[in-house]
């Protein structure tokens, strides 16, 4: 049985709420140019096969990426479009949802829109010197105090201080090469004591050691077209999945990246 939860706007940003261990919960961020954007908190009651939804206002712009704290189920980060002086920038911020929504909802999808609440801004990730934000990653096994953002060709490691009300840039690295290099996505590995991340730019996948901010592997032409997203196998070290605009999903062993371990070609669309 496929359960459907209606959204009134388009959406491209989706994340599980990993700090929530008692419920099956996802957060979805909307993209609307005409109206205030929203974050939908989607709860799945697997015992009764019911989907419940709550809506939070995200008034600062279209949401292009969303991620949640691994330690605090009320805290999340978004990357969003912001227009100033006719220029569109993609910014990032850390937010807290209302306390009463942290533990889930029993609202029905039809009733929840009348109870819309607003997110509390905790801090901005200042990207004025680094470019457009592509994504925000939380340290997977951490206390929710370390995050990495990818902005244009920069990797930025932040420490969250004062109950996440302040973000301090602790280290950074820049992707160098010919042309205008820009990161499209990234993922923080839960293995190796959380010292490694993987990033995608154009058709290339790279691994980084965040202690030294140096590259540790590179998969050139990982896909025939743009690499859209990445993820690590949470149960098996060294294994990384990638997907691209070439409609393929590929699985890699990062110890030997000359060829993918497996390629799936069943998709007909990116």
UniProtKB/TrEMBL annotation:
Residues 10-270 form the EIPR1-like beta-propeller domain. The keyword Lipid biosynthesis does not apply. SMART domains: WD40. The keyword Transmembrane helix does not apply. One of its GO terms (biological process) is protein ubiquitination. Coiled coil: none annotated. Keywords: Repeat, WD repeat. WD repeats lie at residues 220-256. It comes from the Eukaryota. Belongs to the WD repeat EIPR1 family. This is EARP complex and GARP complex interacting protein 1. It comes from Zosterops lateralis melanops.
């Amino acid at each position: 049985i496929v359960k459907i939860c209606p959204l009134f706007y388009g959406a491209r940003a989706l994340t599980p709420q990993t700090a929530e261990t008692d419920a099956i919960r996802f957060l979805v961020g909307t993209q609307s140019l005409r109206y205030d954007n929203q974050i939908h908190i989607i709860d799945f009651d697997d015992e009764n096969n019911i989907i419940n939804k709550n809506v939070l206002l995200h008034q600062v712009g279209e949401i292009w990426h969303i991620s949640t704290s691994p330690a605090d189920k009320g805290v999340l980060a978004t990357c969003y479009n912001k227009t100033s002086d006719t220029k569109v920038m993609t910014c990032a911020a850390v937010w807290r949802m209302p306390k009463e929504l942290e533990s889930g909802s029993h609202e029905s999808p039809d009733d929840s829109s009348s109870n819309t609440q607003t997110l509390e801004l905790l801090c901005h990730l200042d990207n004025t010197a680094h470019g457009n934000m592509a994504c925000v990653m939380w340290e997977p096994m951490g206390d929710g105090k370390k995050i990495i953002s990818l902005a244009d060709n920069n990797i930025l490691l932040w420490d969250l201080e004062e109950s996440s009300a302040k973000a301090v840039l602790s280290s950074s690295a820049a992707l160098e090469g010919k042309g205008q290099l820009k990161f499209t996505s990234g993922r923080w590995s839960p293995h190796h004591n959380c010292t490694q991340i993987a990033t995608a730019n154009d058709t290339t996948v790279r691994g980084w050691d965040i202690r030294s901010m140096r590259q540790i592997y590179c998969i050139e032409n990982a896909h025939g077209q743009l690499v859209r997203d990445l993820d690590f196998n949470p149960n098996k070290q060294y294994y990384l999945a990638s997907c691209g605009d070439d409609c393929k999903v590929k699985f890699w062993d990062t110890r030997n990246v000359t060829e993918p371990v497996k390629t799936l070609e069943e998709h007909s669309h990116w």
